[in-house]
């Protein structure tokens, strides 16, 4: 994020959690759609202002995971990994919270710039579901905000939380999944090698997990994008 450049927000979540409703609430009519390069996946992009700052928000495809087993999952994952949004808001359904948290934990393995947004809190209340967001915040290490996007409940608090994260008043320490002793040992061996390869461009632990899982696609995409970037730099040098 550079000065005078809009702050980039990604909106992630399972299908039918009210993610697009939140997107519409935040952006109003300031939005448009476009295809992700090379994929027939439509992304909605919009903008809004808050406390004198300009924001660009991208509504990622609704997915249950970031395992790249479908075009939607791959686009959502690659946007968070390579576009490096300043904040990723993960929207979850208050009435099916446990199922939705799988995606949130995957996002938190990739980036620490996360806000968990619990939507449909009014529906949860009708069903007698009580959510202790402060306890969740302590456990997960990221801000947890309860909202009802369609009724605009909690939106002012969400906007204030976004502002406080952007200005550095909120720091996060996302919960990291712990795996078996054998997996953790292999991760410890692999992470230093991954760090030498990608530096701070990607989360070394997350990439090491992908490689241990036999998924080399993200590394191949990284190398390809790196080569394309270097080619562009050389072209710019010739132009100068």
Q: Assign the structural class, choosing from mainly alpha, mainly beta, alpha/beta, alpha+beta, or little secondary structure.
A: alpha/beta
pLDDT averaged over residues: 90
Order of adjacent strands in the largest pleated sheet = 2-3-4-1-5-6-7
Largest sheet: 7 strands, mixed
Low-confidence stretches: 231-240
According to CATH, the homologous superfamily of the largest domain is P-loop containing nucleotide triphosphate hydrolases
Helix content: 40-55%
| Strand and helix order | EHEEEHEHEHHEHHHH
How would you describe the oligomerization state of the chains in this entry?
A: single chain
The percentage of residues in β strands lies in 15-25%
Give the number of DSSP strands. Answer: 7
- Proper CATH architecture of the largest domain: 3-Layer(aba) Sandwich
Tell the overall outline: globular
Q: End-to-end distance, in Å? A: 25 Å
Look at the structure and give the CATH class of the largest domain.
Alpha Beta
Q: Whole-number radius of gyration?
A: 19 Å
Number of domains: 2
Description:
The chain is an alpha/beta fold and 240 residues long. The protein folds into two domains: 160 residues, 3-Layer(aba) Sandwich (Rossmann fold), CATH 3.40.50.300; 49 residues. It has nine helices and seven strands. A seven-stranded mixed β-sheet has the order 2-3-4-1-5-6-7, with helices on both faces. Strand 3 and strand 4 form a beta hairpin. Helix 7 crosses helix 8.
């Amino acid at each position: 994020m550079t000065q005078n450049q809009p702050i980039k927000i990604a909106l992630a979540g399972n299908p039918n959690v009210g993610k697009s409703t939140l997107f519409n609430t935040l952006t109003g009519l300031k939005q448009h759609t476009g295809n992700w390069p090379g994929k027939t996946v439509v992304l909605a992009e919009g903008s809004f202002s808050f406390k004198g700052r300009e924001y660009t928000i991208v509504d990622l495809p609704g997915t249950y995971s970031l395992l790249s087993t479908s075009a939607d999952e791959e686009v959502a994952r690659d946007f968070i990994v390579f576009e490096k949004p300043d904040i990723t808001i993960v929207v979850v359904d208050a009435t099916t919270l446990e199922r939705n948290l799988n995606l949130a934990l995957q996002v938190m393995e990739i980036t620490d710039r996360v806000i968990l947004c619990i939507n449909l809190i009014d529906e949860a209340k009708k069903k007698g579901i009580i959510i202790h967001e402060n306890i969740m915040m302590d456990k997960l290490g990221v801000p947890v905000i309860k909202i009802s996007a369609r009724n605009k409940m909690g939106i002012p608090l969400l906007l204030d939380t976004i502002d406080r994260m952007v200005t550095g008043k909120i720091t996060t320490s996302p919960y990291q999944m712990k795996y078996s002793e054998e997996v953790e040992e292999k991760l410890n061996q692999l992470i230093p090698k991954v760090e030498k390869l990608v530096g701070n461009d990607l989360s070394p632990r997350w990439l090491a997990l992908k490689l241990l899982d036999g998924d080399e696609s993200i590394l191949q995409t990284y190398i390809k994008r790196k080569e394309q970037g270097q080619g562009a730099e050389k072209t710019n040098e010739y132009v100068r």
